[in-house]
Amino acid sequence: MSVSFGPFAMGMLQFIFVLAVVVTMLMAWLVSKKYKVAISDSVFHVLAVGILVARISFIVRYFELYAEAPWQIINIRDGGFDLWAGVVGSILMAVWEISRNRKIWQPLTIACVSGAIAYTAMNGYYQHKYGGELFVPNVQVQTLDDRTAYLNREYLGQPMVVNLWATWCPPCVREMPLLEDAQAKWPDVAIVTVNQGDTKQQVLDFVAEQNLNLTDMLLDHNNRLSNEIGSFALPTTLFFNAEGMLIDTHVGEFSPARLQQAIELISSDE
């Protein structure tokens, strides 16, 4: 679900996109040599415009939330992109580049289509292996009042947001107020935080220090949930629908807009 490079980590879907971009640029280099025409700049323009349009489309959809925290607009790590808007933007840019130099239409098309196929294939494999098959894990956790609970039994029949966090993780700490707001905004969605590795006293001290009022805080002393889902980057957030099926994931710190988008997805599945 995530990949790590030393202290850096990214979600698998983000990693797949990066690999697809690498494939596109590699194919651009290869076909440039074959057709003896430079297309690297054109490919870069197509990719850049696609990413920009995808980001702008997402920001427009959740503009009210970004208006409250405008610095989040440039925080592309939050994963706020509209895929199909980006595809349309890329196609229009490709058409523009070809109209300026018709000699590049074939190599540019080959490079861009190769990248699209690579992304579709890798994403399809990932979704086949994990998407639609991963349900709420059967992981034993502890409540703050020392009760043993099982994650897949505790919140049956309602959408659930599961946030993996730790007290030593600054992005995790920054997310807590957003999760608290979400708890009040969506009372029919279980907002569940599962602490990874801290002691009960550490969590209680943290809650008191931060003055938090999250009702579903669980303890996973042995990091069973991280092992179960294959993500060791914190924070990681999982979004399950009312049937317990995993609908969306987010690795790293989310923005208010990204959190709302994912909660809307699991709520609409009810």
From TrEMBL:
<keyword id="KW-1015">Disulfide bond</keyword>
<feature type="transmembrane region" description="Helical">
    <location>
        <begin position="12"/>
        <end position="31"/>
    </location>
</feature>
<dbReference type="InterPro" id="IPR050553">
    <property type="entry name" value="Thioredoxin_ResA/DsbE_sf"/>
</dbReference>
<dbReference type="GO" id="GO:0005886">
    <property type="term" value="C:plasma membrane"/>
</dbReference>
<dbReference type="Pfam" id="PF01790">
    <property type="entry name" value="LGT"/>
</dbReference>
<feature type="domain" description="Thioredoxin">
    <location>
        <begin position="115"/>
        <end position="268"/>
    </location>
</feature>
<feature type="transmembrane region" description="Helical">
    <location>
        <begin position="83"/>
        <end position="99"/>
    </location>
</feature>
<dbReference type="InterPro" id="IPR017937">
    <property type="entry name" value="Thioredoxin_CS"/>
</dbReference>
<dbReference type="GO" id="GO:0042158">
    <property type="term" value="P:lipoprotein biosynthetic process"/>
</dbReference>
<protein>
    <submittedName>
        <fullName>Redoxin</fullName>
    </submittedName>
</protein>
<dbReference type="GO" id="GO:0017004">
    <property type="term" value="P:cytochrome complex assembly"/>
</dbReference>
<keyword id="KW-0472">Membrane</keyword>
<dbReference type="GO" id="GO:0008961">
    <property type="term" value="F:phosphatidylglycerol-prolipoprotein diacylglyceryl transferase activity"/>
</dbReference>
<dbReference type="InterPro" id="IPR000866">
    <property type="entry name" value="AhpC/TSA"/>
</dbReference>
<keyword id="KW-0201">Cytochrome c-type biogenesis</keyword>
<dbReference type="InterPro" id="IPR001640">
    <property type="entry name" value="Lgt"/>
</dbReference>
<feature type="transmembrane region" description="Helical">
    <location>
        <begin position="43"/>
        <end position="63"/>
    </location>
</feature>
<keyword id="KW-0812">Transmembrane</keyword>
<dbReference type="GO" id="GO:0016209">
    <property type="term" value="F:antioxidant activity"/>
</dbReference>
<dbReference type="Pfam" id="PF00578">
    <property type="entry name" value="AhpC-TSA"/>
</dbReference>
<dbReference type="InterPro" id="IPR036249">
    <property type="entry name" value="Thioredoxin-like_sf"/>
</dbReference>
<dbReference type="InterPro" id="IPR013766">
    <property type="entry name" value="Thioredoxin_domain"/>
</dbReference>
<keyword id="KW-1133">Transmembrane helix</keyword>
<dbReference type="GO" id="GO:0030313">
    <property type="term" value="C:cell envelope"/>
</dbReference>
<keyword id="KW-0676">Redox-active center</keyword>
<dbReference type="GO" id="GO:0015036">
    <property type="term" value="F:disulfide oxidoreductase activity"/>
</dbReference>
